[in-house]
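ugh ok fine here u go
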Amino acid sequence: MLKIRLARGGAKKRPYYSIVVADSHAPRDGRFIEKVGSYNPLLKKDDAQRLVLKGDRVTEWLGKGAQPTERVARFLALQGLRAWEPGANPKKGEPHAKAKERAKARDARAAAEAAAVAEAARAAAEAAAQPETPEAAAEPAPAEG
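structure:
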């Protein structure tokens, strides 16, 4: 399958991308069929050289069945060569199974601690409400002086 994708070039921490048509099995920066544009993310957003596309070649490759990657599809939409809709993934922010188990265990521990604190408070309240023992009542109260 043919892909229209980015191939990284440039130096360390100075990226520069070529927009290429390549076989989907080829390495990211490896062999490609044709270079159809370039993208320089270090330039300002309003710079004309930030994104350069050969529109006629891109439309020809799209007609032949080449599939753009998500990022390249956005670039094509910016140039008006293809419509792009953001994907709807309602489960994107949902935690996975292990995280759900950890959250359930954390909630159970918190509930157990809250129950223990409530039980201790109830026991303390009952102890305070009980009448004094007979020995404590037999002792005379200290005289006020």
